[in-house]
Amino acid sequence: MIFCVEDDNGIREIELYTLRSTGFEAQGFGDASAFFEALKSAKPKLIILDVMLPGEDGVTVLRKLKSSHETEGIPVIMATAKGEEYDKVKSLDLGADDYLVKPFGMMEMVSRIRAVLRRSAPKEKAVLTIGNITLDTDKHLASISGKSLSLTLKEYELLKTLMEHPGSVFDRDKLLSLVWGVDFGGETRTVDMHITTLRQKISEATAAIATVRGVGYRIEEKIND
């Protein structure tokens, strides 16, 4: 959900229409009071905040957002008037993620929103560990008890997919889609063949790829009987 805080009804409606037509959920507010009331029941993914608002101005609203533990992490794009350098600098100093200078194009707004959402998205965990298997996704390395594993690209991607969701069962079609791509024309035995070779290479691990009959595969720590 994107919140648009803009007192000009025409501009606000165009913003909402553009966001909804490009795949976003969006809600609009004409002043700070209505905006803060909505925040009590829903937290948006991003806020577009006009500087020139009736009552509390956008900079004051931004300061409140960034001083609250509940809202400090919500990305904010400020909308400033052309030539208002002070507003831009003040907003960025207070923690705004970006700004748009009026009048701005709607596609520029969408592009800025997507860029900010990409930057603020949670980072993928770089090191995955199950038992004594370690996967360093930054370095693209797999190891058992510190000893490097020699994996093919598909074996690595299979192991990474399973380790990202320990205990979760993946059917063969899902693994084909995630590892080989949705357009891959191979049969599901391709997955079985790669699972077999991967199992051989991690046979010394304190984790194992288990077969769930009639469903697929999952990775779990070995349980000693």
Task: Explain the overall architecture.
The chain is an alpha/beta fold and 225 residues long. The protein has two domains: 119 residues, Response regulator (Rossmann fold, 3-Layer(aba) Sandwich); 95 residues, Winged helix-like DNA-binding domain superfamily/Winged helix DNA-binding domain (Arc Repressor Mutant, subunit A, Orthogonal Bundle). 40% of the residues lie in helices and 23% in strands. The strands form three sheets. It has a five-stranded parallel β-sheet, with helices on both faces. Strands 6-7-8-9 form a four-stranded antiparallel β-sheet, covered by helices on one side. A three-stranded antiparallel β-sheet has the order 10-12-11. Helix 1 crosses helix 5 and helix 6 crosses helix 8. The protein is elongated and about 65 Å long.
What string, H for helix and E for strand, traces the elements in order? EHEHEHEHEHEEEEHEHHEE
- CATH superfamily assignment of the largest domain? Response regulator
Task: Identify the strand order in the major beta sheet.
Answer: 2-1-3-4-5
Percent range for β-strand residues: 15-25%
Largest sheet: 5 strands, parallel
Low-confidence stretches: none
- Determine the mean pLDDT: 89
CATH architecture of the largest domain: 3-Layer(aba) Sandwich
What's the level 1 CATH class of the largest domain? Alpha Beta
Number of β-strand runs: 12
Q: What's the alpha carbon Rg, rounded to whole Å?
A: 24 Å
Overall helicity: 25-40%
Query: How many helical stretches?
Result: 8
